[in-house]
Amino acid sequence: MDLSFGAEYEAFRDEVKLFVSEAWPRGADAVCDRAVQLAFVVAAVERGYLYRSIPKKYGGSEQEFDSLRESIIVEEFDRAAVPWRLGNQGVGQLVPTLLEVGDEWQRERFIRPTLRGEYVWCQGYSEPGAGSDLAALRSSARLEGDEWVINGHKIWTSDAEDANFMFGMFRTEREASKHAGISYLLLEMDQPGVDVRPLRQINGATHFHEVFFDDARTPADWVVGGRGQGWRVARVNLKHERNLGSGQAMRRRFHQLLDLAQSARIDGRPASRDPVMRERLAELECLVRCVETTSLRQLSAVAHGEEADIGLPLLVAKLYGSEVMDRIAGLAYDLIGADGLLAPTDSGWADLQSGAGEIDWVDQYLFVLAMRIAGGSSNIQRNLIGERGLGLPRDLRATDVAR
Amino acid sequence: MHFGLNDDQQLLQATLREYAAKELLPARRREIFEAGRAFDPGLWQSAADVGVTGLVIPQRYGGAGLELLDLALAFEVLGEAAMPGPFLGHALAALALLCGGSAAQRERWLPRLASGDALGSVALCELEGGWGPETWGVREADGRLHGAKQHVEHAERADLLVVGVAGGGLVLVEGGAEGVSTASIDGIDRMRNLSRVEFVGTPAEPLPGGVEAARRVRDAGCVLLAADAFGAAWKLIRLTVEYSLTREQFGTPIAQFQSVKHQLANLAADTEPTRGLFWYAAHAFDHLPAEAEHAAAVAKAHVTDRAVQVGRGAVELHGGIGFTWECDVQFWVRRCMFDRAWLGLPREHLARVADLGGW
């Protein structure tokens, strides 16, 4: 075992730090300034720090794969609270999907402007009747001449109001079975047949939307990976949704909790001196260390081609991480005492985007509930762990019971 | 940067798994458990032959000269096998000499400890229940020892006892020395025998390493117990998975039921992320001195506590049979209970985590 990155990587880290200090105007209210954000991203691509796996001809920086360098870049960008992540859906999901299964013209048309933040994408997967059972989706597209005509209803669509485009799954093959009848389509959001309505969340904020389609249209060749291949394409896409290494984020949140424990008072002294609170904090420290060391294992395994060793840690990471976040927020909610009776302000989202600003723990306490649900609910995670991790049999389905 | 096991470490674990599977057949494990006499000369000799007894002892003393991480990986396998015998006390006695012994003391003891010809153990727990150096009350004056300890592993057989004394230092007492009396305790883990030991004017020889060495021994003990418990916890999960795939109720294996599947998934999800805790703590013991104590306390507090909870879930999932004496699950349930309680409860180590964190 060796936890040092070595001289070459430490030199690289210094180089990245220097770049950040020059390219990111500290102290400026740049978090909300899109132009400054884009300028940073463009400069970072030119330096080979971003979009490293994407070919130059599509706007990437086409660097040799090096997970350690990637982790150093992310660490240093995040340490300086640079909002370098431009639209998770487009950059994180659509671009890798197009690179893997898209047509050449689709790559040339969509990838570069997406990387530059000129195209913002939203994801059209979930429907009111298709949550965990995603393949039950009913929104449909039928081919009329050289256009798909789309009808239906998507839900939990983040960024739908800002998005220029949607990638999503639609039922195109009426006669085909559940999974085989789906196609992965791209469409423009700004058209008469698309109606976006905000969805108000449990904390009062509105970051998700419902999208209604009423004879919306998209060109016939805006299908990715071929007709009826949508389920397969989406699985490629979901693979890219997985996020390696949440240790740093967890540690940052725990430090915010510690700050709170030191400023909050119990019996006239800092809450962090209260024996019960100290024990609860120490328990959480252990859990955060579990997340951190698991992130280290993942980073190491990817760097050394030992991915086979981290199958189970990856399978449990989402369930585990959401529980640790929940417990951190729960302890903080206890520490704020009577302030827990105040209405939440919308701080969780801004914090998630940039890591900047004061955290509102009432909001956080409600916001972390999303982690148990989004991207595969905790019970779906337990199914995956049981079936793929422990080799337990698949659930009985209604069709099995009927037999 | 590498946070994973190298080929040698994987080979070490594979070799030990082979040793355990070959030397400790289920029927033999049951026999030892029933008798409650955990020291088995044959098992001890074969363990010495594969090198477990001298893993961290330098090669010049006849050991393998490996690191605490390697020993922890060995303990993971011992926990997995519910291996009976005095491995823990023996390892800690050797580590005490390595961390705090004089050249002469090492010269005298380490070769025999490495080969397994001499058996070592450590006497740490006071009769009032304190495990840490700051709580020790056994008095050493003019080379004579007065007082008593409890929960000493395999004290009757030990050729060498390392005893924690008032002020936080360590002393050596030879087996069979004047004024030593032992009384065996009917302990929770029948695979690791415990005794109460009394010293009345017993000749004792201080280790020059003092309190610092004693703290290192505690750190090492925390790491080894965490590793042992981790191995036991995964064994419990695997046993329970096997059982759930074969046990049928309502016309189908119970693994088919989502309630069972989810409970098993929770056990795995709570256990697997703790692996890095004992890896990291062992690595810190060897290479990151500033973090060693904190990392060891985190590993001991959390891994052993999780493991005990896994054991309780495993019994529940086994249903009625899990509650019986005949069911082997209890070997590992008891092992985890031992690992959690020996060297202090999670609460004590969590308090140290908070103190060391500077909160």
Order of helices and strands of chain A: HHHHHEEEEEEEEHHEEHHHHHH
User: What name does the CATH topology of the largest domain in chain A carry?
Assistant: Butyryl-CoA Dehydrogenase, subunit A, domain 3
The count of helical stretches of chain B stands at 12
- Mean pLDDT of chain A equals 90
Query: Structural class of the secondary elements of chain B?
Result: alpha+beta
- Give the number of DSSP strands of chain B: 11
* Tally of discrete structural domains of chain B: 3
Give the radius of gyration of chain B.
Answer: 20 Å
The geometry of chain A reads as globular
Describe the structure.
The complex is a heterodimer of chains A (403) and B (359). By secondary structure, chain A is α+β, with helices and mostly antiparallel strands. Chain A has 13 helices and ten strands. Chain A folds into three domains: 7-85; 121-230, Butyryl-CoA Dehydrogenase, subunit A, domain 2, CATH 2.40.110.10; 242-396, Up-down Bundle (Butyryl-CoA Dehydrogenase, subunit A, domain 3). Chain A has helices spanning 7-23, 34-46, 67-79, 87-101, 104-115, 230-241, 247-263, 275-303, 311-335, 348-354, 361-367, 378-389, 398-402, and strands at 121-124, 140-144, 147-158, 165-171, 182-188, 194-199, 208-219, 223-224, 265-266, 269-270. In chain A, β9 (265-266) and β10 (269-270) form a beta hairpin. The longest helix of chain A has 29 residues, at 275-303. By secondary structure, chain B is α+β, with helices and mostly antiparallel strands. Chain B has three domains: 7-115, Butyryl-Coa Dehydrogenase, subunit A, domain 1 (Orthogonal Bundle); 120-208, Butyryl-CoA Dehydrogenase, subunit A, domain 2, CATH 2.40.110; 212-357, Up-down Bundle (Butyryl-CoA Dehydrogenase, subunit A, domain 3), CATH 1.20.140. Chain B is built from twelve helices and eleven strands. In chain B, α4 packs antiparallel against α9 (275-287) and α5 runs antiparallel to α7 (210-246). The radius of gyration of chain B is 20 Å and the shape is globular. Chain B starts with 6 loop residues before the first helix and ends with a helix. Classes of the chains: A alpha+beta (403), B alpha+beta (359). Chains A and B meet through α7, α8, α9 and α12 of A and α7, α8, α9, α10 and α12 of B.
